[in-house]
Structure formats: structure tokens, C-alpha cells
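[Discussion] Sanity-checking designs against the backbone

I'm trying to build intuition for which residues belong where. Below is a C-alpha cell string of 414 positions. I'd appreciate it if someone posts a full sequence so I can compare it with mine line by line.
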């Protein structure tokens, strides 16, 4: 059997002898690929980076013990079968874990090799039977869509919130996460009141201790559909670290069908981690030469990271009104890519929409700005790519309210 056919198993265990036993038993079966972590914090990190099909976890670890260990793993890995490992003295705790969702428990001193392999196979078979019907999305398959300005002030945040509004209006659970720095607060402008708890509350916690309950406690439901995780305009905070980004985004993609990330222009460690977790990445470029040059430099940087190259898309926003904007053919030549859309300027209408706490795509759907966003959404998330939304409802319909040409003529938004 090829390694690619092996089922990924995560073992969270601080006993080296038992880890060696599990690796021998499951490795020799040629059906499993075992990754291991000696602590709960490292195990939670591996869940995010290498999602397993089954988790084996010792309830008593160096940094966690008892039922709390199971709860932390279940919180981070909803829908993934968990088999708890325990001693003879802790079998009541293990039984409680099984009552609350663990697939099985094994007493370490009594485990025989055949029993361990059989327990793995049964957990996988049971998970397959209990999985969503064919054609529905698994619980942890949320799409992460990132918007990244080539520099500050090009309209990436505005594009992100308008795309999120279209997604939410199509009937799927959507969240926008503002990972901007300092006095951003763009998302908060769409809320009637300043959020009491926001991203800063999560950043104050250790990254590996953030739970789904923590996330939901900081999220606000907008009046126009999406959930928002944002900062107060009066707050001042630093750049989120990679570990915090990983925890927050991973929890969000398990709770929402679409996760929209509003990212700052500077690609630091936190932004780099967000990009790794993203599906489509949309670079926003203003239609003026300084922005285009910044966009070309950013695209060159992203293309040098081969894992990101296939994800990157471009949209041009006519944020700066020029009497003679650069020709699109010259912009394409400089960026070395054809933009998915050109979004016309609508500064006054956008200001009005923010005062009404409603994105422009909903406030004025026939505005050329709105139509361009509908077209962009269609190209980023066609029905096949978006897929069904499972419990949240049917697959979203195309977003365009009227046919919009895929060709970008020079005079379309002149």
C-alpha cells in the first residue's frame, strides 16, 4: 500500500514507550500513518496543521489531565473520532468521555496489538456510517477566502465585507475576521454599536487555549447576514501571531461554511499563516501606478512561495479617480496576470452604506460597484467550488443579478 493510501492517525501521548508500541502496531498494519505529540498543546497544533482521521489521546498529559483533556481535543476537532487512553484508575472518566462523544476508550495496561488496530478500524468505519450523506460537506470543510491589499487604503476591507454580504444572503453561514493592525475598525463601521469584545480578547489568551466558546463570545451578528469578528475603532493592538491566527481561523472554518479574512498589506508571520490556511487569495490593487507597482512586488513575493501561487487572484479597484487611469493592458503586463474584475469607484455610496450599517451590494444592488462584486463572487466561488453547505442549507446560487461580461474593456468603468 502506498503512503498516500494510509489513514492519518494522531497520537497525543507523553509516554515514549507507549508511543513506540502504537507506532509499531499501527505502522506494521500498513493502513495507518501515525503522527505523535508529547503534550496537549502540540497535539492541538497538529490537529490544525495535519488534520487526522482518528485521534488517540492519553487523558493525563504533562500540560492537561482528566476529562478536561478530552474536552479540549473535542473542541478543536469536532467530527473527528476520538479514542481516549486511560489507566485502570481512570476508567470512569473515560466512560464519561464516551458518553459525551468519544468513539471508544482503551485501558493502556490491557491493550493488545490486535485490539488497538481493531479499535482504529472500527472508529473509521463508524465515522463513515455516521458521516453526512453523500453530497454534503464535512463539518470541518469551511472555505477560507482572504483579501489582501497590495498596500494600505486600496479597499480590501470594503471588498471583503461586500463579498461576505453576498455569501450570507445566499443562505450560508459566513464570518468576516478582521486581522488588520492598529486603528483599523473598518468592520465595526457596519455595526450599530462598538463591540465590547473583539479580536483583542482572543489575542490576550494563549493561542492553544482558545476554544470555540471563546470565539463565539467575541463574534457579533451583523444586521445584514454575516458574523463579524472585528476590533473596536478605539482599540490599539499589534499584529496577531501565527499561532493565534492558526487557532482562530481553524476554529472559524469548523463553525462557518465561509471564512472571509481581511488581511493587512504587510506579510508578517501572522499573515503568512493566514495565507497558508486560505483557499482563494485575492490581492486588491488600486488603478494607479504606485499601487500597481506595489501589487507587482507583492505578487512576486507570493509566487515565490510555490504552495500559494495557485491560490492567488487579483482584482483592480478604481479607488483613486484619475482622468486618465493606466490602461488595463499595461496593468496586466505589469502584474503578469489578468484581473478577475475591475471594481469602479463608489466613495460617496460606500460612505452612505456604512452610515446605514449595510454593505453597498445590498443597499444598492444595481450600482456598478455592486454588480462588479457579484461578478467577482461568481468567479471566486462558482457553484461547483462552493459546494453544498450541509446543515446551513443548499448550495449558494450564482451571485450576479444580471449578466456581466468576463472581458474587461477599457471603457467599462471609465
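Best answer:
Here's mine. Compare freely.
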Amino acid at each position: 500500500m502506498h503512503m498516500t493510501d494510509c489513514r492519518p492517525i494522531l497520537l497525543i501521548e507523553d509516554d515514549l514507550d507507549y508511543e513506540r508500541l502504537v507506532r509499531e502496531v499501527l505502522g506494521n498494519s500498513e493502513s495507518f500513518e501515525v503522527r505523535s505529540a508529547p503534550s496537549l498543546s502540540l497535539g492541538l497544533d497538529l490537529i490544525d496543521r495535519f488534520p487526522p482521521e482518528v485521534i488517540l489521546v492519553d487523558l493525563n498529559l504533562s500540560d492537561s489531565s482528566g476529562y478536561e483533556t478530552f474536552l479540549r481535543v473535542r473542541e478543536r476537532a469536532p467530527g473527528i473520532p476520538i479514542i481516549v487512553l486511560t489507566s485502570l484508575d481512570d476508567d470512569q472518566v473515560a466512560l464519561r468521555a464516551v458518553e459525551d462523544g468519544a468513539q471508544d476508550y482503551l485501558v493502556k495496561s490491557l491493550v493488545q496489538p490486535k485490539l488497538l488496530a481493531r479499535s482504529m478500524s472500527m472508529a473509521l468505519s463508524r465515522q463513515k456510517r455516521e458521516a453526512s450523506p453523500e453530497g454534503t460537506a464535512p463539518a470541518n470543510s469551511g472555505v477560507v477566502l482572504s483579501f489582501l491589499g497590495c498596500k494600505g487604503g486600496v479597499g480590501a476591507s470594503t471588498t471583503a465585507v461586500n463579498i461576505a454580504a453576498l455569501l450570507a444572503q445566499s443562505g450560508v453561514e459566513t464570518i468576516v475576521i478582521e486581522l488588520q493592525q492598529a486603528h483599523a475598525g473598518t468592520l465595526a463601521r457596519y455595526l450599530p454599536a462598538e463591540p465590547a469584545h473583539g479580536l483583542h480578547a482572543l489575542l490576550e489568551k494563549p493561542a492553544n487555549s482558545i476554544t470555540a466558546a471563546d470565539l463565539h463570545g467575541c463574534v457579533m451578528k451583523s444586521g445584514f447576514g454575516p458574523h463579524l469578528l472585528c476590533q473596536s475603532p478605539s482599540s490599539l493592538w499589534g499584529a496577531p501571531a501565527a499561532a493565534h491566527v492558526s487557532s482562530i481561523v481553524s476554529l472559524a472554518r469548523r463553525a462557518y461554511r465561509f471564512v472571509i479574512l481581511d488581511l493587512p498589506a504587510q506579510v508578517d508571520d501572522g499573515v503568512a499563516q493566514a495565507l497558508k490556511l486560505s483557499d482563494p487569495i485575492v490581492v486588491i490593487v488600486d488603478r494607479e501606478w504606485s499601487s500597481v507597482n506595489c501589487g507587482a512586488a507583492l505578487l512576486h513575493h507570493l509566487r515565490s512561495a510555490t504552495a500559494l501561487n495557485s491560490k492567488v487572484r487579483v482584482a483592480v479597484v478604481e479607488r483613486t479617480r484619475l482622468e486618465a487611469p493606466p490602461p488595463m493592458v499595461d496593468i496586466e503586463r505589469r502584474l503578469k496576470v489578468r484581473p478577475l474584475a475591475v471594481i469602479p469607484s463608489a466613495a460617496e455610496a460606500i460612505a452612505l452604506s456604512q452610515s446605514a450599517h449595510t454593505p453597498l451590494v445590498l443597499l444598492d444592488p444595481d450600482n456598478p460597484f455592486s454588480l462588479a462584486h457579484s461578478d467577482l463572487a461568481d468567479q471566486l466561488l462558482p457553484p461547483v467550488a462552493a459546494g453544498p453547505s450541509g446543515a446551513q442549507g443548499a448550495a449558494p446560487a450564482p451571485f450576479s443579478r444580471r449578466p456581466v461580461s468576463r472581458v474587461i474593456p477599457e471603457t467599462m468603468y471609465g
